[in-house]
Structures are given as C-alpha cells and as structure tokens.
Design a protein that fits this description.
114 residues; alpha+beta
Length: 114
C-alpha cells in the first residue's frame, strides 16, 4: 500500500532505525518513544489490524509475537519485564493502520496503561 507509512518503511522508502528483521517482520525504534526501549514490530505484509487478520495470517501473527520476544531479549529488557501492546482502531489510538506491536520497557511501567 503506497500510502501506508509502515509499508513504506518496510520497502525502505522511509529510513528507520531497524533493530531486527527477517522474512516476515521488521522491527524499528519508535520515533516518539514512550519508554527507554520502544520498538515497533511490523509484519512485512500489510494487515490493517487484528480485526482484519484471517486464519491464513496465523503464522504471520505468530512470527510477529516471536519477533517481539526476540527484540525484548536483544534489548535486554526480558529479565526485568516489558510490555507488548497492540492498539486496534481509533479509540485505542492506533495512529498507523498497519498491524504493529509496541515493545516497551527499560523502566517500571504503570497500570492501568490508559
């Protein structure tokens, strides 16, 4: 999708600070971090959000979850704890309509989050 910010990052049209990538996902630092570690994990194939995912996307969704855990280990926040967040839709403040997981950590995180 040529008008999707994250698709353009996946295609390399927009530079990003990539911390992990494989054939299914790309992970890069958020440009407006909300924690010392704030990485976005994005599937390479465009899916607008969880509600638009199909059963055929199960492996891709699993790859996104595994990549989020990998990023947490790589960034050194897995031992102390981290949060994986998926915002779906406008009421949840999803600002880019491309499924993505926020991996947040590096400090104590409050609850409830919003």
């Amino acid at each position: 999708m040529s008008d999707c910010l994250f698709c353009r990052i996946v295609e390399g049209e927009i530079p990003s600070d990539i911390v992990y990538q494989d054939e299914s996902v790309i992970a890069f630092r958020d440009i407006q971090p909300q924690a010392p570690v704030h990485v976005l994990v994005v599937p390479r194939r465009h899916i607008s959000g969880y509600s638009e995912a199909n059963p055929s996307d199960d492996a891709l969704l699993g790859a996104v979850a595994r990549a989020a855990a990998h990023v947490a280990r790589q960034e050194g926040i897995d031992a102390t704890g981290y949060r994986s967040v998926v915002n779906s839709g406008p009421d949840a403040q999803q600002s880019v309509p491309h499924l993505h997981v926020h991996v947040l950590g590096g400090r104590p995180l409050s609850w409830p989050p919003g």
